[in-house]
Amino acid sequence: TTFQDGGEEVEDGAVYNVTLKKVQIQQAANKGARWLGGEGDQLPPEHTVRQYETSKIRAIKAGTLEKLVENLLTAFGDADFSYISIFLATYRAFASPRAVLELLLDRFGNLETSSHGEVANLNSLESEMVLRAEIASVLRAWLDQCSEDFREPPDYMCLLKLLDYLKNNMPNSDMESRVQNLLKQFQNQEIEAVDGFCSTSSSDLVDGEELEISSPEEFSSFQDHVVAEQLTYMDVMLFRRVVPYHCLGSIWSQRDKKENKNLAPTVRATITQFNAVTKCVISTILGTRDLKIQQRAKIIEKWIHIAHECRILKNFSSLRAIISALQSNSIYRLKTTWMCVSKDILLMYEELSEIFSDHDNYLTSRELLMKEATSKFANLDSSEKENQKKSQKRLQLQKNKGVMQGTVPYLGTFLTDLIMLDTALQDYVEGGLINFEKRRREFEVIAQIKLLQSSCNSYCLIPDQKFLQWFRRQRHLTEEESYKLSREAEAAADTNILSPKSQKSMVKRISTLFLGTDVFTPPKEQPLKSSPVGGSSGESTDSASVSSCEFNHSETEDVCVTPVSSPEDPLKKISGSPSCSCSPDSSVSTPSSGLPSLPPKGSIFEPGSGSDSGSVPSRDSCSVLSGAPRALPVYNRQSEGSCIIRVSMDGLHASVYKSILITNQDRIPDVTQRALLKHNLGPDAVEDYELVQVISEDKELVFPRDANVFYGMNSHVNFDFILRKKA
Fold this sequence. Notes:
Blueprint: E1 2-11, E2 14-29, H1 31-35, E3 48-63, H2 65-74, H3 83-90, H4 97-107, H5 125-145, H6 157-169, H7 174-188, H8 216-220, H9 224-241, H10 249-252, H11 265-286, H12 293-312, H13 316-326, H14 329-332, H15 335-339, H16 343-354, H17 363-372, H18 385-401, H19 411-424, E4 428-429, E5 433-435, H20 436-455, H21 465-472, H22 479-492, H23 500-515, E6 642-649, E7 657-663, H24 668-678, E8 689-696, E9 699-702, H25 709-712, E10 720-725
Parallel strand pairs: 6-10
Antiparallel strand pairs: 1-2, 2-3, 3-5, 4-5, 6-7, 8-9, 8-10
């Protein structure tokens, strides 16, 4: 089989990509060979005749909503077999379920008024049967893949409309009974918020329970593998509930608006759980003031062992949450405590941390996730022999039990990829047509999420109520509290527990593990700020900070701790921050990841990029209808006349930013208006603001009124901008 590009076909309201598919359908002996009685597959090529058939594959590239819905009925005829799945997974970015259902049923499903090509002859019974089969096929796929689209309590208008259509056009069919059962199921189900198992609000506690800081003895009573299994149990339950379209960049980036406080609850639940694990780690290490250094080190060691058990269970979500907590300011600065952690455990911690290294756009974690997505067991390789023996022993126990494992990903990677796609690709192309090529790119990410959700059905975990109650009643420390307790713990440490010689050796070893350097410079203490937000690369590693992308003080589930260092770069904050699922644009602080092949190290697209779908009309010049696909623009690099910049508001911390796509055609008024819209401010106030690029701590570049931002900016420093009100 060979494929050939057939160019484009343009119709009224739609543009199609055409591919020619050449398939061999027959191989036979030629005349001379047949006369000799030869068979085609037994003769050399010169004595055989091959017959080929060329078929045309049409895939819609852009179109109006009407054309996209109509294409649901014709996609199989055009050999675009994945179209229905792609449309159903992504249409919420540009249409509502009601709008699609009305078009499908009223315009194309009504035989008396249908303009569908196959029913041009309204008297044709055959055409009527074909159309009904196509409608039934689309509806069946919709109910199979996206039944949550019809959950609209208390009225369920779409489901009732569908039921009415089926009664009139397909009475007593399996589809009708299925819709009736779904309606009953929705009506009988309790309406409950999807908040996971980790909410710390008092309403979720059993009568008589209070939030508390647990004692070290109680925490130590839980075996490491039990804690990992229970964390995995909670993560699996939440991840399986995630509605894939909630992850779309155009939807997730809108959640901070006041009217969208209940938007994407399934994703918010995973964020809450991720942050709860992170805060639980910090609370157990710092919550008890009178712990000795060795006792605190033992708790750190226990959490590293638990993280390793999560790795065996292929739970990358809790694994990253634990590693992020250990890399947070308040834990990382406990230098004396870390000196008491055994060498083998530190090596294990280093290996686990390297999984989430930001090198080559998080290539290690991406490759590992794809490698183990559907494998039965984890693939454990350790450079340290003792750790490798323990890992293989634990893994063999799993295999002996015959227990297969699914894979729980770190959802933030996917959220960031989708935010990046939404920022870099426009929603509409020439003529106001919906850019469906963008939706195909988004579906590549959504399909990975669905695949991993399916793999989670392999888990067979039983809830341990004792641990779940312990976990639920943990009182989480605030950033201020954890920082204060960290300073107290370090100040109270007995600095004479080690001889000067051994202490110097230990400092050198721990600095090598954490910083990749033989020189360990103790971080400079800084006074705690009243509202700390994540610092820049040059900040003290001691400063307590909550780094956030569009930090929202009203949403406690979005508050998270920021790690401070990475093995690759001692001056750069580690990528493994316990971000709210690295929720793009969420109150998280994780330098995030983009697409696997895009930003190199140092050019990572971070999740603060809220993309207001369709709000950038000036990008029409980047029409996807032109030529071959171009490389997507990235942060900190100008490429093919476009790039992504970060714009924060004057008076807020630099980590509270919005990512904006600019081209070499954009001038100050366009970019300023776009930035105001992203920060939920009135675009009419363009004249009241000036755009400034931050060059260094004491230098900045102020742009003139009509300057071209792309050509005027300094491309040798970070693409960080400030929107400041004019004096």
